Amino acid sequence: MKITIGIASYNQQDFLPDSIESALNQTVSCEVICCNDGSTDNSLEIAKKYPIKIVDQVNKGLASARNSILMNATGDYIIFLDSDDILLPNCVEKILEIAKTNSNIDIISPSFKCFGKGDDTIILMPNPTIEDFKIGNRIGYCQAIKREALLEVGGYNPKMVWGAEDYDLTFDLLKRGKKLVTIPEVLWLYRTKENSMWTETAKHQEEFMNQI
Fold it and tell me: How far is CA 157 from the centre of its chain?
């Protein structure tokens, strides 16, 4: 079973090396793809220093960058990682342990810990259903998703201009009966900053929920 780690990057030159190195330093070897989404800093040059696959495109937004990764990935599952976040070394190993127990699992979502401006530890609830997601998002964006399931739903929705494209994708997958399993163990680190895409998304919760 093969895993692809896909890193979408836009102007994150200060953090991108840590993200790429965390993908390359997994205890299980993976395909690593970085999509440079029209960065105007040195992100592309930084990515070229590593033994990874690079997709370079004009700026189209996070959803489109992740879809470009999807179209270039060869793994059975794809783990999407933002360019300022970090995978713990055993993340892929733990995900594979679960994936190999049941071929019908489509989404594997690990728990995570915040760092930077916050230090919260988020332990996910056991295997939430679509009804749980109607109340609020129950998982982090960083999850392993079957490539064939992603292709079936057409990937991420680029119309989610207010963010929450991962939340929208989860609804698309669960509505089609895809199986989600969570891991109650911290396997990745989520960087919190004063101003980030998450803080901007939070300002538009009503708009993106209406879209979903």
Answer: 14
